Write a sequence for this structure.
């Protein structure tokens, strides 16, 4: 069954420190993964998609099929990075497709 | 932001009352989704649509129904609201081309008393 696990509900770091938000997935097909960010009381915004291998706001994420992981990393955290982060997996079944979300990690960057 | 709006943005209603939430898009996207967001549960899919009058259930569809009579509108109805349906509801859209990412609306905060 398809599943996304974000093991940390809360993560707290100091400004300037490296940050890694973990995401593990379970999927029988070829995975397509995304990271979404939600700043306080705002809508979810797409942060990264693994197929484009881009870097947004200094964040990167590499798909590791061997470890079934898609961890989000940033070398130097900023206070404005404080937000809720969701990892999501695209699931295709028959003629329909949907995103399966992890439960999210709340990142707090302290001054 | 993609052209997605939700209405109302906030609503307080009483148990047993019917409630309809509206999602409106100006992107002419085929796919539309309704999610609920709850602490400790993340986002959970309620219903989705892959075209006009084509809808299907998500993982938490009990107590909810949807309708899509036009490409731009996707309605979520709580036939008889319960306190367990107090949540923040997000609509999302996805196009047919490009990447498979979804774009989200601003959310509706619903409180059932």
């Amino acid at each position: 069954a398809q599943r996304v696990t974000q093991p940390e509900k809360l993560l707290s770091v100091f400004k300037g420190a490296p940050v890694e938000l973990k995401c593990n997935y379970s999927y029988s097909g070829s995975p397509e993964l995304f990271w979404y960010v939600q700043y306080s009381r705002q809508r979810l915004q797409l942060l990264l998609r693994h197929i484009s291998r881009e870097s947004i706001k200094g964040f990167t994420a590499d798909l590791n099929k061997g470890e079934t992981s898609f961890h989000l990393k940033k070398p130097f955290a900023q206070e404005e990075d404080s937000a809720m982060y969701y990892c999501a997996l695209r699931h295709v079944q028959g003629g329909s497709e949907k995103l399966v979300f992890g439960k999210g990690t709340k990142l707090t960057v302290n001054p | 932001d993609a052209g997605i709006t939700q209405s109302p943005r906030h609503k307080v209603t009483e148990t047993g009352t019917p409630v309809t939430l509206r999602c409106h898009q100006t992107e002419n996207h085929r796919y539309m989704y309704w999610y609920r967001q709850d602490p400790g549960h993340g986002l959970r899919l309620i219903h989705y649509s892959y075209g006009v009058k084509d809808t299907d259930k998500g993982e938490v569809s009990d107590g909810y129904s949807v309708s899509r009579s036009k490409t731009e509108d996707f309605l979520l109805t709580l036939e008889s609201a319960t306190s367990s349906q107090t949540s923040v509801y997000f609509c999302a859209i996805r196009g047919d081309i490009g990447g498979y990412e979804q774009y989200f609306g601003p959310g509706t905060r619903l409180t059932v008393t």
In short: Chain A touches chain B through 25 residues (CB under 8 Å). DSSP finds no helices and eleven strands in chain A.
